Amino acid sequence: MNEYRISNVKQLLFSACLAITLSACQAMPLNQPKSVVFDEFISTGDVLPIENITTIDGEIINLQQLGKRKLVVLFASWCSDSNRLLTALNNSPLLNDKTIEVIAIAREEDVETVSNWRDKRGIKVALAVDADRSIYKRFASGGIPRLITVGENNKIIKMNLAEGEQQLAKVIW
Q: Within 13 Å, how many C-alpha atoms sit on residue 60's CB side?
């Protein structure tokens, strides 16, 4: 008699779990990509949390210089969206605008890797590395590439996760 009850309880629990699982699956639309939301640690109006940065070529860039807009890109050389963005930026008029300082910072990469990546692709954007993610973690918990526009007063205008196509359209001054 005990075995009969245990068997019934197991069947009941299995049926309940199956019903819950199936109802949860129906609540989500089929073929919809899951949107991942990452915590962001800066907001519009915040001061850019980087003072100086050294490029992979040894040049020190003062990112607190007033009177110049800045475009900061957080990327990774292995990321297809980052590659698309840096290629587009490389070919854009933004690099020739003397009123804009452009710097792209490679997350969790070393100078040699980023130098080789730049040379292989002919990238003209000033590049720096953030080997230990100490810079990146000032901005967000995840997600690359990121476009951060900064006004002449060194205050953040906008930070965008720039995945997909038409990434430079997300540059907002």
A: 5
